[in-house]
TrEMBL record:
Annotated pathway: Cell wall biogenesis; peptidoglycan biosynthesis
EC main group: ligase
Catalytic activity: UDP-N-acetyl-alpha-D-muramoyl-L-alanine + D-glutamate + ATP = UDP-N-acetyl-alpha-D-muramoyl-L-alanyl-D-glutamate + ADP + phosphate + H(+)
Role summary: Cell wall formation. Catalyzes the addition of glutamate to the nucleotide precursor UDP-N-acetylmuramoyl-L-alanine (UMA).
Lineage top rank: taxon: Bacteria
Organism whose genome encodes this protein: Salinimicrobium sediminis
Alphabetized InterPro entries for the sequence: Mur-like_cat_sf, Mur_ligase_C, Mur_ligase_C_dom_sf, Mur_ligase_cen, MurD
One GO term of the biological process aspect: cell division
Protein name: UDP-N-acetylmuramoylalanine--D-glutamate ligase
Length: 456
């Protein structure tokens, strides 16, 4: 369904206020200005120089280090950065006044007729997004990548407007949609994450993820992990309109993706693709699932089978996700800084094939570490805590491993891990936590890890 068709009935709103002057905010401002809105960007923090320059180049009014509430409350439409919680007083006041508060994804959707692939999930969505984009691009499509990765979706719609977009969508972005409808929706998995934003209610978080299918019709497709009990329970209780294409490591399907005799088999409408699992450059069971999801999208969009197979072999993976950094004294150092929750770290530990010194910790989002205990018992020889509050980790794993040390900087953590690791071991940074206690974000944390390893 085209976005134009979906949104042609919406009235034009004149005064657009954007809360947050980062990538999504500035992109929305540029698109808003192009579409004839009077546009104003407001950020409670400081707007980075590169974004300030873009606003000034486009003649867009902005403020930072404050919110001019009186002005903001005169908006006809507000785009809120995904980092701003729904229950902040300003957002509550906007809603009380009946002013629509939407996400960048919703706003940009109104102005493109591109075919959209929306990808969400607690883990694996970045890898799946980048792999899907890689397959479609190698297949010759005019395709953009946006959402949580790449440039702002709104900015791309304003400046290039590709024929296809692959969008990585967080639950926060999905919370701000009304009419947004991807032609192909992908849900990689659902495990508890960001529960601090959902009043510690897992069901609210699940409902947020499933907003990705809320506007889909029988002409659209929904690709999902049939091994995930949370997804399967929700689908049993909530009928959806779209055509379902499951993927699984355990089951076979008439339509969907599965593994049989070390072959990935993907069946869509009257078409079957097979390729050896050995073709995958990405290691681990979770990456086999990411590959099945991405290849199913490519198959639906009629990318040649041989192109899909070759593209799977040439994909390089995602920075900060099980990224091999260096081997020093026959010890492999792996950067998995993107593992900001327990489930992501579960996949990382599961893929370890040698004794592991595990660097873990950060801002605990209400983590339940018990799922990791069997893997920690089996694979982890020592733990290096990296965070301000390490108590939950000490309590969870104190009886599991002989050695746990506490650190407050990446350099110290890497040095401690270096002392604890022996020939043939792996040092794994897989924090299972957010990064905001000691780092700007997970990328900063990953870069500092790689830098500290190179200094050894």
């Amino acid at each position: 369904m085209s976005a134009g068709a979906a949104n042609s009935g919406r009235e034009h709103r004149n005064f657009l206020v954007i809360l947050g002057g980062g990538e999504s905010g500035v992109g929305t401002a540029i698109l808003g200005k192009k579409e004839g809105f009077r546009t104003f960007v407001s950020d409670r923090g400081k707007i980075a120089d590169k974004f300030r320059l873009q606003l000034e180049e486009h003649g867009i009014e902005w403020e930072d280090e404050k919110h001019s509430e009186e002005k903001i409350l005169k908006a006809d439409l507000v785009m809120k950065s995904p980092g701003i919680p729904d229950d902040t007083p300003l957002v509550s006041r906007l809603r009380e006044k009946g002013i629509p508060v939407i996400s960048e994804i919703e706003f940009a959707y109104t102005y493109t007729n591109a075919v959209l692939v929306g990808i969400t999930g607690s883990n694996g969505k970045t890898t799946t997004t980048m792999l899907t984009h890689h397959l479609l691009k190698e297949g010759g499509l005019n395709v953009g990548m946006a959402g949580n990765v790449g440039q702002s979706f709104a900015k791309q719609v304003a400046e290039t407007n590709a024929d296809h977009y692959v969008l990585e969508l967080s639950s926060f972005q999905l919370d701000g949609i009304e009419n947004f409808c991807p032609h192909i929706a992908v849900l990689t998995n659902i495990t508890p994450d960001h529960l601090d934003r959902y009043k510690y209610d897992f069901n609210r978080y699940i409902a947020s993820k499933f907003r990705i299918v809320k506007n889909q019709t029988e002409k659209d497709y929904f690709i999902y992990d049939a091994d995930d009990p949370v997804i399967m329970k929700w689908l049993q209780e909530n009928p959806i309109q779209s055509q379902k294409l499951p993927f699984s490591l355990r089951e076979e399907f008439e339509k969907g993706a599965f593994i049989k005799d070390e072959q990935i088999i993907i069946r869509t409408d009257n078409s079957e693709l097979t390729m050896p699992t050995s073709n995958l450059t990405l290691e681990g069971k979770h990456n086999a699932k990411n590959a099945m999801a991405a290849a199913t999208v490519a198959q639906l969009l009629r990318i040649r089978k041989e192109t899909i197979r070759q593209s799977m072999e040439s994909f390089q993976g995602v920075e900060h996700r099980l990224e091999k950094v260096l081997k020093i004294n026959n010890v492999q150092y792996i950067n998995d800084s993107k593992a900001t929750n327990v489930n992501a770290t579960y996949y990382a530990l599961e893929s370890m094939e040698s004794e592991t010194v595990w660097i873990v910790g950060g801002v605990d989002k209400g983590n339940e570490y018990s799922d990791l205990l069997p893997l920690v018992n089996e694979k982890v020889k020592a733990i290096v805590c990296l965070g301000i509050n390490n108590e939950p980790i000490l309590n969870a794993f104190g009886n599991c491993v002989d050695t746990i040390v506490e650190t407050r900087s990446m350099e110290d953590a890497v040095n401690q891990a270096y002392k604890l690791a022996e020939k043939g071991d792996t040092v794994l940074l897989s924090p299972a936590c957010a990064s905001f206690d000691l780092f700007q974000n997970y990328e900063d944390r990953g870069r500092q890890f790689k830098e500290a390893v190179r200094k050894l």
